[in-house]
Amino acid sequence: MAHQRTSNDADRALIAYVRAVILAEPLQLAILEKYGVRLAGLRALRVLRDLGTVPISRFAEAIEIPRSTATGVVDRLVERGVIERVSDAVDRRMINIRVTPRGLAALEDRALLDESVVGTRIRALAPEEQRLLADLLEHVVGDRTTATSARVA
Question: How far is CA 142 from CA 12, 32, 74, 128, 139, in A?
Fold first, then answer.
């Protein structure tokens, strides 16, 4: 298959990104089958993981949706066992949400990653290419904590 040529590096990067998302679709489907979580749910889990235990209003603000919509998202993710509601330690009337161990597993299921086409292709890269890819992807998604913790470990 011939690669589409563009005159702009940003266009080339965007097209490559879309192709990578398509390549990762079978992995997304495997996560859906195993954990009952779609791609939007994975984003919500990642944001909540980064926030920690927070009120639904803070979660809604972070993912830029109305609180009423966030309540529906939370309800669905609670049903799937990937997040939970917990009473606030200070004000027992206040309810917070947090990611469960099952939710963390959905975000980082090594077996699913290893068995995926995208996982196989990334592992086939040279170590320096893997580091470069990880750095670029973490930069694009704004997740520099992974890069920092991986270098410290």
Answer: 20, 24, 23, 21, 5
Tell me, which fold does domain 9-115 have in CATH?
Answer: Arc Repressor Mutant, subunit A (1.10.10)
Distance CA 9, CA 11 (A): 5
The whole-model pTM stands at: 0.72
Mind listing the pLDDT tens digit for each residue in 86-137?
998 888 888 999 999 999 999 989 898 888 999 999 999 999 999 999 999 8
Quick check: 145 and 59 in contact, CB under 8 A? Answer: no
Q: What is the CA radius of gyration of the chain?
A: 18
Alpha-carbon distance 16 to 70, whole Å? 31
CA dist 67 and 133 (Å) reads 35
Ordered by start, the domain boundaries in the chain are: 9-115
SS3 call for 55: strand
